[in-house]
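Q: Structure tokens for this one, please.
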Amino acid sequence: MVSAGVYLIIRTYPLMAAVEHGPALSFIAFIGSFTALFAATIAVAQNDIKKVLAYSTISQLGFMFAALGIGAYVAAIFHLIMHAFFHAHHEVSSVHVDSHTAETGPRQEHNFDPQDMRNMGGLFRKMPRTAWTFIIGGLALSGFPFVTAGFWSKDEILADAWAHEHQVVFAVLALAALLTAFYTGRQIMMTFFGKPRTAAAVNASEHDSIFTWMTIPLMVLAVFAVALGWTGIPTTFPVVGQFSNNPFHEYTASQAEALGIEAAELPFNPVPLTTSVVVALGGLLIGYLVYRKYAARGESEAPDPMARPLGPVYRVLQNKYGFDELYYRVFVKGSQRLANWLFKFDDLWVIDPIVDKVGWLGRRLSEIGHWFDVNIVDRTVNLVGEVAAALGSALRTIQTGKAQNYLFTVLLVLSVALGVFLLLPK
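A: Here is the predicted structure, written as tokens:
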């Protein structure tokens, strides 16, 4: 995924350079910003731990394309690689969590969903290594300031947006980053803190399971989710910048310059830095404050704390703006209707009836041809044969083999011919 994404972005450098500051890039920036915010709003109301991560990934892809749209090519690649590590870490952690929940869940309850965060809670004490690594990945995704990879990559995108005076993109991405931190804090609180909300959460454990060894790659990915971001610390950043030569930017910028594109390092600006810190810490804090009492109650049927204040808006977000239903009605049902229409067109209305009629006509023509062959051709041929046979039989009687008979026949014929000649009028 990483290598393919880097290759794709680098190979689009010439195209981006050709349309720089044009409407095409503005459109890409708009689509990227809209996607980042749109997917983040859906993620805040999902209860399936995998769906939260899925919509989070879509949102982060929006960040990358928004960065491309404002010409922040290095920041786009940097965020792509950073996100690949902390999302992979987050994804594996979620698999570990819901696998244990499924393993210990009440199998007699057919409606029990091991991926539903409402069936979790209190897993920090039951699965500490998974919890710590999940939290590290979540903090990286949220852009926890200064120590995580996600902070440095998101801050780079916001800094580029601010430096190139894309204020709308800057504001939209900042809001999306705030929601990212919020739904990550919500996810952590619902999954790992408070009281267990089901028997499956009570019985969850990292030990005596085939998934025990999964915590090792989690710990490795957790290291990358933190330390890998340090390869992109700007040299202009206060204090820590003097210890960094920004190897990621140096390498990527050299690739861009080889394609004739300038990718200079930005001067430090406190506005995007302050924004990055505020939205990351603010989103995590809001997530904690909103969901701490919900987690402490330990009731799987308790309503979501956001459901009442948001009212119908929460249901819209939880239903993903109705896009699943729209997709089902337009594409699934539409495809079914089209398939049924094509079936009728083929089987009942046009294709099969035409084929059947052509077959019927061919059969009738073959029957007529057969009758003509039997009653006309065969009978004519047989009649000719019968006449030839009759003539042969008649002529056979005069073939006696006696010369006097042949001489008599000749004389008879000559006599008849002479008589006819004499009788004809002169």
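A few notes: Confidence is low (pLDDT under 50) at residues 1-8, 13-19. The two ends are 119 Å apart (CA to CA).
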